[in-house]
Amino acid sequence: MGPAPFNMGEDDDQGWKMVRGRNNKRNDSTQHNMDIATTRDFNKENINTLTTFFLTNFPDSFGARAMFNAFHHYGEVKDVVIPAKRDKGGKRFGFARFDRVVDSREFEHTLDQIIIGRDKISAKIAGENSYAQAVRTGEATIKGAGQKRCVVTYEAEQDDLLRWKKAYVGVVVNPGMTYNIQNAFHSQGYFGVKVTPLGSNLALLEGQEEGEVQALIDDVKDWMDQWFREIRPWSPKDVDVDRVAWLRIYGIP
């Protein structure tokens, strides 16, 4: 569902009510200042059908009702909760619960693209336990929000291992140089060495003939030193974890 225009923080009645700090413990200022906007027809018995999203990076001027108004144009939002406390970084956070979310990952992406004023909000799928903790204590712990560790294994062919054992690995002088070295070799007339970036810092050097890489290291050491601060025989432990990526930044005036 595409974005629709909305008036930031408007007070028109869209079928919800604001609830603030219903707590008998008056010495708990966190609970007293809890900001909640919810629909009138909200039924706690249907809580298992709701999808909860953890929200950050929304404007300081936006309360629960203003956020509810914004989300009203994207899906069937049931309630928005913004605790008075802030996270460890001093930033505000909150939760929004939606009904009838067909694809939670796709909807997460939709919410994560919303721009309010100069701020692009951040939205991640959260568990109901995190939501309940925020309502009770005004704090929330989102462990690895949207982040999962992926372990990939690869078993190389025997022919590839024999080929790589004859190769070298070069550690570049500056990160990112690996992507330009092949062109530099060709411009100098060195066509006998194949350069394959392994990442931002490491490059695999393979000679068309055995001993060609070593000969190049010996003959044009000064030129090679412009690119590499170290060249060593290939090892299975040579794994480059750094990559060069383009970033698209939103909200810059």
From TrEMBL:
The keyword Zinc-finger does not apply. Residues 1-33 are annotated as: Disordered. Residues 51-128 form the RRM domain. GO terms for molecular function: RNA binding. Keywords: RNA-binding. SUPFAM superfamilies: RNA-binding domain, RBD (SSF54928). InterPro entries: Nucleotide-bd_a/b_plait_sf, RBD_domain_sf, RRM_dom. This is RRM domain-containing protein. It comes from Trifolium subterraneum.
